[in-house]
Amino acid sequence: MNSATIAFILCLAYIIGLLSTILPLPWGGIVVLILGIIATFFVPRFWRKGPKRWIWLVAGLVGLAATLYFQVRIPRPPTNDISRETGAMEQLVTVRGTVESMPRLTRTRKAQFWLEATQLNEIIGKDRPVQLGKEVSGKLYVTVPLLQATGLHTDQRIAVMGRLYKPKLVSNPGGFDFRNYLAQEGAFAGLAGQKVEFLTEEQGAKIGWWAIRQRIIRSHTLGLGVPEGPLVSAMVLGSQSVNFYLPVELKDQFTRIGLAHTLAASGFQVSLILYVVLLLTKGLSVRSQFIAGVIALGIFLALTGPQPPILRAVVMGVAALIAPLLQRKINPIGSLLLAATFLLLLNPTWIWDLSFQLSFLATLGLVVTVPAISKRLDWMPPVLAAAIAIPVAASIWTLPLQLYVFKIISPYSIPINIITTPFVTILSIGGFISAILGVLWPIAGGRIAWLLYYPTHWLIGLVEFFYELPGNSVAVGAISQYQLLVLYILIALVCLFRWWRNYWWFAGLLAATVIVIPVWQTQTALFQATILEAGKQPVLVIQDKGKVTLVNSGDSSTGKYDIIPFLQHQGVNQVDWAIATNTTNDNKSGWLTILGYLPIANFYSNSSAENGTPGQTEIQKVLQARKGNYQPLIPGQIMTFGTTSVRLINAEVPMLQLLIDGQNWLFIGALKSEEQKQLLITEKFPKVDVLWTSGERVTAELLKVVQPKVVIVSADKVDLETLANVNQAKINLFITGKDGAVQWKPSGKFETSLELTEGYNALL
């Protein structure tokens, strides 16, 4: 048994050990060790020329050690970390520190960067003396207005005035886990900055890799304009280096139709670099080629930054350069496994980094699956066969993980990848040439970049065309880890065994069955009502055996970050009935955002179309273009949506009565105490099971009249009077700002997204 096989087994054991950390401690490591012990006794019986018994035992121990190493390397806040300054949270402070990253543009049109904090100054203390000049440490997620980020660059010392905060837990099913995202980056708090001050000793400009990146971006933009210039820069340097200049909308379009990888510097760019270097140095010795290649890859890594996909690609590229130097044939799978192990030794937590996972799986697909697909396409010209085989192979291996994480699939992903491959190749090569010239002479780099205008413009046009097509993304809902495992087992069977390879269509049918049937069964049987956590904006989603009713949309941010992720998590691809209790400008933007992702079959507003607001008129136009119906919701009229009945009692408050599976719900907008008392005089209230309000106050008189069993408040907190009234009446109280989304099912039980970890006093 040669050393390469032993190294392969030990590397694989290390990676399996890291993957086993998905299990609670210490079971992951114990399971891997038990598997190693079992292999010690049984594998040699079937693999007589395989490794000796002790190798399998060592592999089990390596897997166990990997789980322990993972726990040691998990980022944890030190004792003086700024996130531990609980008294300063939500207070106005000034934080001094060093800029760790170039600013990027957020979806809310602010600048975001990472700051390594060194000193904390409180401006306003909270029930205690103000702290000045306190030494702290830790990484901060900082957002500031765009103008405040002007002139910021890495390694710069600054002071930021703003409010410290701790990231919240996920409050809605399918929502973005901001706390986990920060933890993966080694940060445990954020700073909503208002003003940035450049410290006097750091006012002088510095030269660094950031300056070279800026020079390349400037050169591309000079020759191509916006958004063409930043798009070419993203293909050369990766979107993370160009985030401040690349329009968010364009990036979303690339992502939604399955072209996100073209904006991430990784294996394709490394291959181009090596190709150019080896072409230019073909007359030199192998050693000279190796040195030139390593230098070129080192410069590329410094320009883009040490991101997991780039590190993986660079390590693979170095392995490709070493093989000729040692006069050995490259084993692609072994090189990939070695590269992954090396990177995970540097940082074992990358095993759960999505970019690392997708990059590794895509490369594995290219190594394992491209040859088989190319063989079946040998009747085509080689260039065309490769253009088809590469995106198909990468998609096969990354699709299950994408389904598991994003809950959506892009039907046009493979066709658009095949069509755009020539454009991406031309733009990447041309972008590299213009980048090199741009560093030396920006005007010359801009002139070369100008030649790329039409290919770039046509690529953007293709992306926009596919983005506008109906069904550019389909939500499949959340799939389990077991379904994910089954999908990858089927892929592995097709790659490893001839019978499965001959009947690949059968494996594909099984894979579709594993996804479609459970989702279909869940959709056709599910009945639930969910009030989402959206601040003071009341949002209700009723899922009635495949039919969906949405009450209110909130603003654009609520629609994009709360409603759409929840619907995708549930596998919803159409809203059958939408009810808008008002269509002000903020709420109009929410509905328009939702319509950008999902069709709405029937839209109901509490105001007639003839006397509609500008917001209503715009919604009507979009609905008409997408063949949706717009109808007024007339006060007093009972309307039926599936098994749910709805009656608008008062259009001005607004006040809405819903009969959901036999349970009586009453929604009332935010009203002050006097307004509630006046409403009790003018309106006749029914007795209800659930009282739902978007205000922070509920009077005792209202509770006495409607006699609810449950009160749900769509707000961050309630006042003392409401808390006393509800407690005195012995009514169950849910506050979305504290409990997260509140979900009801026909069993009669209410469930919340967040567990009760604090008393109500924290909210008052």
Automatic annotation (TrEMBL):
Signal peptide: none annotated. It comes from Floridaenema evergladense BLCC-F167. It comes from the Bacteria. It is a multi-pass membrane protein. This is ComEC/Rec2 family competence protein. Residues 23-198 form the DUF4131 domain. Keywords: Cell membrane, Membrane, Transmembrane, Transmembrane helix. It is found in: Cell membrane. The keyword Membrane applies.
